[in-house]
Specification:
Blueprint: H1 4-17, H2 29-45, H3 51-64
Helix pairs in contact: 1-2, 1-3, 2-3
Length: 66
């Protein structure tokens, strides 16, 4: 399994690119876990996939499905 702390940092960076600011939009532990689990599962399905693309896809899907 990937390091969840590292994944959270990647996700946080992408969220910031989408206008996320921690003081205005806090994710709860379940949301963080779901995002990390999604990225991890997609990476396990396709080991050659670019992790940064997977994170961008996960964040985009999360934001658009809110």
């Amino acid at each position: 399994m990937m390091n969840e702390q590292w994944l959270r940092k990647l996700i946080r960076n992408v969220l910031h690119q989408y206008g996320y600011h921690p003081e205005t939009w806090n994710l709860d532990e379940d949301e963080w876990h779901r995002l990390c689990a999604y990225v991890t599962a997609e990476k396990e399905k396709n080991r050659s996939a670019d992790i940064y693309e997977l994170v961008h896809d996960a964040v985009y899907e999360f934001i658009t499905n809110m």
